[in-house]
Amino acid sequence: MKKLLLLLFCAISYSTFAQAPAGFKPVKDTTAFKQKMQEQSKLINSIESDFTQEKYLSVMSEKIISKGHFQFKKVNMLRWEYNEPYKYLIAINKDKMYIKDNGKVTKYDINSNKMFKSINEMMINTVQGNLLNNKDYKANFFENEKFYLLELTPTQKGAKDFLKAIQLYINKTDYAVEKVKMIEPSDDYTSIDFSNRKTNQPIADEKFIIK
Fold first, then answer.
1. What are the DSSP calls for the chain, one per residue?
2. What's the predicted TM-score (pTM) here?
3. pLDDT in tens, the chain (211 residues)
4. Which domains does the chain have, with CATH numbers?
């Protein structure tokens, strides 16, 4: 379950830090930043991107590298497909969640599971630019020349048990999320870099139904 939750939180397409991370400074006008994020999100109907995931575990000498493909389509459709070094697929289609692992497909009703429902709402709100208003997370805003860095700290105990913070690296040019870093209470982390991003391209609904 912990592995699944971490994978789902990365959708994203994010411990409160007492000071700005190295190379960043606090954003002076957070209201303007939030407004711009929301304006840009309204222009997005679909997103397609490759991704590279890096998993750091303190008990291992080497990081675990995975690669795959991500797709999003309004309204409430997400697909995460891991291709290397293993096959693993998560798809959300409105109120249904599909997980395919080792060729076996499991289907869930999101509304029947409070935790899945909360995760789904977070993922969709992140992509649509509404996560900044989520009361379950405390937000800190930083920037450097290239990126805005949004750090989200969970305020609910359930999330705090397995998630210390989420960091979103947002490109200042087009407000696209280029990197997501999820930090666990142990300081182990999962980092995802997005590449070859395409927006508002046709994506068939069948991509979000797994059989």
1. -HHHHHHHHT-------SSPPTT-EE-S-HHHHHHHHHHHHTT-SEEEEEEEEEEE-TTSSS-EEEEEEEEEETTTEEEEEEEESS-EEEEEETTEEEEEETTEEEEEEGGG-HHHHHHHHHHHHHHHT-GGG-TTEEEEEEE-SSEEEEEEEE-SHHHHTT-SEEEEEEETTT--EEEEEEE-TTS-EEEEEEEEEEES----GGGG---
2. 0.82
3. 444 545 554 443 333 344 678 899 999 999 998 888 888 888 889 999 999 999 999 888 889 999 999 999 988 899 999 999 999 999 999 889 899 998 899 998 988 877 667 667 766 666 655 666 677 788 899 999 999 999 988 888 777 887 888 888 999 998 888 998 889 999 999 999 999 999 999 999 999 999 8
4. 2-208 (2.50.20.10)
